[in-house]
Amino acid sequence: MQIAQLKEKFVEIFGEGEARVFIGPARVNLIGEHIDYNGGNVFPCAISLRSACVARKRDDKIIRLASTSYPHIVTAEIDKLEEYKNLEWGNYQLGVAYCLMQDGHEICGMDMLFDETVPHASGLSSSAAIEMAMGMATAALSGFEVDGVRMAQIGQMAENNYVGMNCGIMDQFASRMGKKGSAILLNCGTLEYEYAPFNLEEKGLRLIIMNTKKPRSLITSAYNTRRAECEEALRELQEGCDCEFICDLTPEMFEELARLITKPTNVKRALHCVMENQRTKDAIAALNAGDIEAFGSLMVESHVSLRDLYEVSGIELDTMVEAALKQEGVLGARMTGAGFGGCALAIVKEECVDKFIENVGKEYNEKIGYVAEFYIAEIADGAGELVD
Question: Do residues 131 and 24 lie in contact, with contact meaning Cβ atoms separated by under 8 Å?
Fold first, then answer.
């Protein structure tokens, strides 16, 4: 829904009066997959798909939440926010409010209308977009400020401790700290970060998100298995070196120490981690040098590693990426996110985009039977207020 329509809808639900608009962007991870929990880097950016929150302050201690995609209004008492954790809808928002209070802030009553352009269950983090829109709106209406990194941590706390989803920090960090035309190299353990230029439009390129429409049913079990395999590999590697994480090792160090890992499968998992972490370093160097072609090649290497070494892609993502790489004007493509469904990415020359979408969509449908969705994503600023 367009912002002007959203404001009209807000008035229709909550009555006349001035309201403010806050945006929380979705995110994609460009490279650095499945290594955050192994001490590696991630390389996300915020994108133009978003959660929007139209909000107005109330004079009481009530929060009312409405949505363009949920039929009921949720009413919550600020003094009893710990009681709303199991809502069908609205617990992500109220979790942020609750965690802001736990962080020492006094929040006001609010009327709020939410609208998302992020497809749910696609791996683009609609939840973080909602959390950051909610956090920015709550702070602004209540009259306090929260540092950007801290707001990301608040969002993660809401998801971990209130909603009960054990996510890392990347999604909220990218949604809050994103910068237009830039990607973020982030160490999820230390929260050290730096920006790299990712001005695709200036180079006549576009970032295409390709949604496989495959339900991601295997993610939890596969994630737990991969994590256990990496932990086992790390214990064996530590017999030969003083490392805290697999990603502490350089490729050269790993080549020397790989013999310590007894299971061939675990060697593959650890090799992916080491090489993928190196790719994040090579990626920021390529972008800083303006070498988008080299970055595209790293995307392809990343997908091959996720497919063959970490084994988290699946036939849908592999088919999508293979079809993408056949097309004219494609510099690189890879899966993004946890895998077993969700989305893939491609960097495509602007004049080739329409044909790319047509051809990839046709081949994917013929081979898999699902109708894919495609989004042309702009690299966006992080969460904040939308000012007319």
Answer: yes
Amino acid type, 3: I
Give the tens place of pLDDT for each residue, 176-204.
999 999 999 999 888 999 999 999 999 99
Q: What are phi and psi of 270, to 5 degrees?
A: -70, -35
Q: Residues 126, 163: contact at Cβ < 8 Å?
A: no
Residue 76 CA, chain-centre distance (Å), reads 28
Instruction: Verify whether residue 171 is a known catalytic residue.
Output: yes
Residue 274: both structure tokens together: 């080491």
Written as six digits, the tokens of 194 are: 């730096």
From CA 52, how far away is CA 376, in angstroms rounded?
19
Sheet strands (E) in the chain = 20-29, 41-42, 44-57, 62-67, 74-77, 110-116, 182-187, 193-197, 205-211, 330-336, 343-349, 373-377, 384-386
Give percent above pLDDT 70 in the chain: 99
Q: Which residues of 305-317 are buried (b: 16+ CB within 10 A; e: fewer)?
A: bbbebbbbbbebb
The rounded distance, in Å, linking the Cα atoms of 205 and 207 is 7
For residue 141, what are its two tokens? 């209406």
Q: Is 166 exposed, middle or buried (0-12, 13-18, 19+ CB in 10 A)?
A: exposed
Q: Quote the pTM value.
A: 0.93
Q: Is 373 helix (H, G, I), strand (E, B) or coil?
A: strand
For 304-318, how does the pLDDT look when each residue is reduced to its tens digit (9 = 90+)? 999 999 999 999 999
Per-residue pLDDT of 114-141, as tens digits, reads: 999 987 767 788 899 999 999 999 999 9
> Is there a contact between 7 and 54 (Cβ–Cβ < 8 Å)?
yes
C-alpha 334/C-alpha 301 separation (Å) is: 8
Q: Which residues contact 81 (CB under 8 A, 6 or more apart)?
A: 94, 97, 98, 101
DSSP lists the bridge partners of residue 42 as 186
The catalytic residue among 171, 242, 248, 291 is 171
What confidence tier does 151 reach under pLDDT thresholds 50, 70, 90? very high
Cα distances (angstroms) measured from residue 343 to each of 202, 229, 261, 287 = 25, 25, 32, 23
Separation between Cα atoms, residue 30 and residue 223, nearest integer Å: 19
Q: What is the C-alpha to C-alpha distance for residues 170 and 179, in angstroms, rounded to an integer?
A: 14
